[in-house]
Design a protein that fits this description.
By secondary structure, this protein is mainly alpha-helical. The chain has helices at about 20-35, 40-60, 65-90, 100-120, 130-150, 165-180, 195-225, and strands at about 15, 155, 185, 190.
Length: about 230
């Protein structure tokens, strides 16, 4: 197998079009320039990963005490700080390690999402089977994004104006809502609020997955036409 070195690795440009992306970028650059020298990008990555594990455990705690829901919001904020700032810090300091950064960052993200959604399924606020469906569709969309990054050289981090930061905000708002009323009534039937939200998310992510597959398949088909047959 060919040994691919960093000099042969092309770092794919990120496509981030979330509604908060512009303001978030300015905020992250401002913080990165003022970060103490002893803090490294690896420190921030580890902090973000631990925060997601803690968020999942806090959801599990919420099964017995609602303070767990408030703790989830706190840990989501800590995760945003670590997960969003690590790459910005590396770029500001010109300490880029493209292959290492891409691989570690997204492996950590997958583990963190599994912990978070797994915690939701154990919280009593979301049915475990709904949580399972949510994480499966999320992983499928993630896989498609990583494949498209390799095949097309662009890493899309947001869809329809929603990226990681916007999703954290939505989850935090949902947690506040759970503190007052954990159910929703639709068509005369009562459901868990997070079940309703998760089903909507599953449908939206599944539709996004189909659109992305069709769009990228068509683009690659046109970019790599078959050679003309000899007469």
């Amino acid at each position: 197998m060919e040994n691919v070195t960093s000099s042969h690795f092309a770092d794919a440009p990120r496509v981030l079009t979330g509604v908060l992306a512009a303001a978030e970028k300015r905020c992250l650059v401002w913080m990165a320039k003022r970060m103490p020298a002893w803090v490294t990008a690896d420190h921030l990555t580890a902090l973000g990963a631990l925060a997601m594990v803690a968020a999942g455990l806090s959801y599990w705690l919420a099964r017995w005490h609602p303070v767990g829901l408030a703790l989830v919001i706190f840990w989501l904020a800590v995760n945003w700080f670590g997960d969003s700032l690590d790459g910005t810090l590396a770029r500001v300091r010109n300490h880029l390690r493209p292959r290492y950064g891409f691989y570690v960052d997204h492996v950590v993200d997958m583990i963190g999402q599994l912990c978070l959604v797994g915690g939701m399924g154990l919280s009593g606020y979301m049915h475990p089977m709904v949580a399972l469906g949510l994480i499966i569709v999320f992983f499928m969309l993630s896989i498609e994004a990583y494949l498209a990054t390799h095949a097309r050289g662009r890493f899309r981090m947001s869809f329809w104006g929603f990226g990681p930061t916007e999703l954290r905000v939505i989850i935090a708002i949902g947690n506040v809502r759970l503190l007052f009323k954990p159910t929703a009534t639709l068509f005369g039937h009562t459901f868990l609020l997070f079940d309703v939200g998760a089903v909507v998310a599953i449908v939206c992510m599944a539709a996004t997955l189909v659109v992305a597959i069709v769009r990228n398949t068509r683009a690659l088909y046109l970019e790599e036409p078959l050679p003309q047959r000899a007469a």
